[in-house]
Design a protein that fits this description.
By secondary structure, the chain is an alpha+beta fold. Helix 1 packs across helix 2.
Length: about 230
């Protein structure tokens, strides 16, 4: 890296935390550049500068790495939790580099979570305007009328929140359960759960099986595996 970059971006790209969290660390006056206190997240640095957070030296990784994790239910996608719930980062082996999750799944959802050592790459995959499709398998208790799926596929407003067009179809069903395949790009907070609640559908399972070009595949619950970056992903 010959060009300079903002310190907050440097910290995020090093995989220490997100850019926003880096800005908070700077506000707390615990980030130093060449042993001098960093006073503002817009300060610029190069690879020749010594960056420290507390006593830890922060270095850029020359290679972007990517892992996929099968998140179990009753785990949160966060480093900290006031309720002391289990965290996906508890599943990562101790010899791993510091990782950042790409997007999130809620407490009772399971399936594919992507992890990376690079903050910029994480942000790239999360941005809605990049249009990375997320695909889910959703098990609903009971039968579902197709006319409701047609309504959802055209876009729907729930509690003054507009959910744009998504792709939802029945995968299989019997007298007790209906499995849906849901494809969406926007990924608003609890989007699938809010739509199901609106139609009084009881979710039994919600599993993310794909994020952009990356698939859950045969990964086992709680398992983590390094994967190759797909070009242009």
């Amino acid at each position: 890296m010959q060009n300079k970059m903002r310190i907050a971006k440097f910290i995020a790209n090093a995989g220490y935390c997100s850019r926003r969290e880096a800005e908070k660390l700077i506000e707390k006056r615990i980030v130093r550049i060449n042993n001098n206190l960093c006073l503002h997240p817009s300060d610029t640095v190069s690879e020749n500068d010594k960056i420290t957070i507390g006593k830890q030296i922060i270095k850029l990784s020359q290679t972007i790495k990517l892992w996929k994790l099968y998140k179990p239910i009753k785990y949160i996608c966060s480093n900290k939790d006031e309720q002391n719930r289990k965290k996906i980062f508890d599943l990562i082996p101790s010899d791993f580099p510091r990782t950042i999750s790409i997007g999130r799944l809620d407490f009772m959802s399971e399936g594919l979570i992507l992890l990376t050592n690079n903050g910029d790459y994480s942000r790239k995959l999360e941005l809605p305007d990049k249009g990375y499709e997320r695909i889910y398998r959703v098990c609903i208790r009971g039968k579902i009328e197709k006319k409701y799926l047609e309504i959802i596929n055209k876009g729907i407003e729930i509690n003054k929140i507009i959910y744009k067009k998504i792709k939802i179809k029945i995968d299989k069903s019997d007298k007790n359960f209906t499995w849906l395949i849901v494809k969406l790009k926007e990924g608003k907070n609890r989007e699938i759960r809010n739509i199901c609640k609106y139609f009084s559908w009881q979710i039994v399972k919600l599993i993310r099986i794909q994020y952009g070009p990356y698939k859950l595949g045969d990964l086992k619950v709680g398992e983590i595996k390094e994967i190759k970056l797909i070009k242009h992903a």
